[in-house]
Every structure is written in C-alpha cells, then in structure tokens.
Amino acid sequence: MRIVLLQQSIYEQKADAAALAQALAAPHIRFGDLMRSHLVRRTGLGARAAAVMNSGEPFPDEIATAILRDTFDSTAPAAFLLGGHPRSTTQARALDDLLHECGAPLDGVLYLRLPEDEVERRIRQQAARRLCRNDLTHRYEPPADPLAAGRHCTVCGGELYQRKDDDEDVIRSRYRTHEAIVEPVARHYADRSLLTAVEAVGTPDEVAARAVAALGGRAS
Ligand SMILES: [Zn+2]
C-alpha cells in the first residue's frame, strides 16, 4: 500500500511510524532523511535547501516537491509509508500529480491523532522532564506525584535541570504551529476520501494494529 502518514508533534512519533511501516510491510520514507541525503551528497537541491534553512524562511513547496520527484524518479513505488511530507496543500497537490504520473496513486492517508486531554497531558509531561547535566541522553521522566519528583539522575546520580525551551507555553505553541500546518493537508485528503484518522493511544504495536485494521478496506 502507498500511504501518507500525518502525525501530531507531541508524542514519540518515530516508534509508531516504525511499527506501522513494519505492520504494512512498506518501506518507511521520511522526508527529513531524503533532504539530509541531498545535503550530505551536496546536490544542487541540497545546496538550495541549505540556503533556505540558513535563512530561516519557510521551506518552499517547490524544493520539497523537487526532492520527492528526485526520489520517485518516474518509477512506481509498489508500497511506502511517507512521513514528513506533504506540509502544505500545494505540496499535496504536487504529490498527487507526481504519483498519478507514476501510475501509483495513494491508497490512503493515515492521520494519527490524540484526544485533546491526552495532548494536554503530554505537553505537561514533556515540560516536566529533566535532563542530566552529565549526559543529555539521561532523561528523567517525572512520577505522577510532582512532590515525589527527584533531583538526581537515576542512571548516574548527576544533577537534573530543565531546559528553557521545555517550558509548557513553548511546547504548546510549537504544537499549535504544527497543527496549523497539518490540518489543511488532512482536509485536502479528506475532500478526496483518502483520509483515515486513528487514535494514537497505546503502545506502538497497538497503534499500528489499529491503523492497519482501519486501512484494511483500502488495499489496492
Ligand atoms: Zn545521568
């Protein structure tokens, strides 16, 4: 199956996407990886992408689409799970055209969503996380009772601190920005009867099983 994956930004997306790609037996294509490959290989597209990224301007639809065109290169992929793209309705229309030219239209678009109260809970949980001063990979997950929150890393005993950009308001605003990008893309596919929305609550395997069941009727 050829599936576009839309995700909210507030949970461990990679684990869900990886489990889903495996359950669908579809290669997981991540836009970020495609772009990094152009940057590493110093291609013309990579140079243009780097210039934009350094300028802080929004990533242009035209470059994003060119990266996808370069990837599919007129072949018809039998199966894929595409994440991180499209990021606008212009990109979505360009992707529709590209896949149509390849004779390989999308079978569906999966939107992994969380209920509002779960989004709020994860925002607060993420903001309450501490990092170890000794090693940034030692994350501290706070217990449900905030009074019981520890001050030392459970891995190495190092002092814990909170990053400034882990502030609740910062995380909430980052989340809203991401939603504002994804929602119009979701509507684009809903209008074409391609959208399947699934609750992303549970383990990655549970989410993947629910998603596969929901996508079942779309197999080509
Ligand atoms: Zn530590």
Automatic annotation (TrEMBL):
Location within or outside the cell: Cytoplasm
Reactions this protein catalyses: AMP + ATP = 2 ADP
Protein keywords: ATP-binding, Cytoplasm, Kinase, Nucleotide biosynthesis, Nucleotide-binding, Transferase
EC number: 2.7.4.3
Ranges where the record places region NMP: 30-59
Pathway: Purine metabolism; AMP biosynthesis via salvage pathway; AMP from ADP: step 1/1
GO molecular function: AMP kinase activity; ATP binding
Main location: cytoplasm
CDD domains: ADK
CC terms in the record's Gene Ontology section: cytoplasm
Keyword Nucleotide-binding: yes
GO biological process terms, semicolon-separated: AMP salvage
Residues that hold ATP according to the record: R129, G202
Sites where the protein binds AMP: R36, Q91, R163, R174
Enzyme class: transferase
Assembly notes: Monomer.
Function recorded in the entry: Catalyzes the reversible transfer of the terminal phosphate group between ATP and AMP. Plays an important role in cellular energy homeostasis and in adenine nucleotide metabolism.
Family: Belongs to the adenylate kinase family.
Swiss-Prot/TrEMBL domain comment: Consists of three domains, a large central CORE domain and two small peripheral domains, NMPbind and LID, which undergo movements during catalysis. The LID domain closes over the site of phosphoryl transfer upon ATP binding. Assembling and dissambling the active center during each catalytic cycle provides an effective means to prevent ATP hydrolysis.
HAMAP family in UniProt: Adenylate_kinase_Adk
Protein name per Swiss-Prot or TrEMBL: Adenylate kinase
Gene symbol of the encoding locus: adk
